[in-house]
Specification:
The protein is of the alpha+beta class. Helix content is 36%, strand content 29%. The protein has three helices and four strands; from the N terminus they run βααβββα. The chain has a four-stranded antiparallel beta sheet with strand order 1-2-3-4. Strand 3 and strand 4 form a beta hairpin.
Length: 116
Amino acid sequence: MKSMLDMQIRTLFHQEIDAVIEFLQAMLDEMASFGGHVLQNSDSGSKWFRDRIQVQIESPDHLFLGVELNAPSNQMIGILEASIANLPPVFLPKLSIHIHAIYGEPEFAALELRDR
């Protein structure tokens, strides 16, 4: 019998910037462990993310989604950050979404994949 995680995906709001920063830093730390770019200083990285996200989270052209477990207490287990991209003027007008980051807590990703 398969046990599926009871979760929801919802829009994140300005007061949740700290959670977004925490997930993005965890993603960068994991990527750095595999040879990706390393932050010079985690404090300056947090400030850079905060400044950038404070502007973007209010923009209608930017999207921050959170993945939460519904039980027991709406625990956030992942995020997605994306923006609406306009094609250069040499193309016919069309909006597309550009995904910048997707990150989920590894323990929950492993559970969900195992159960499918």
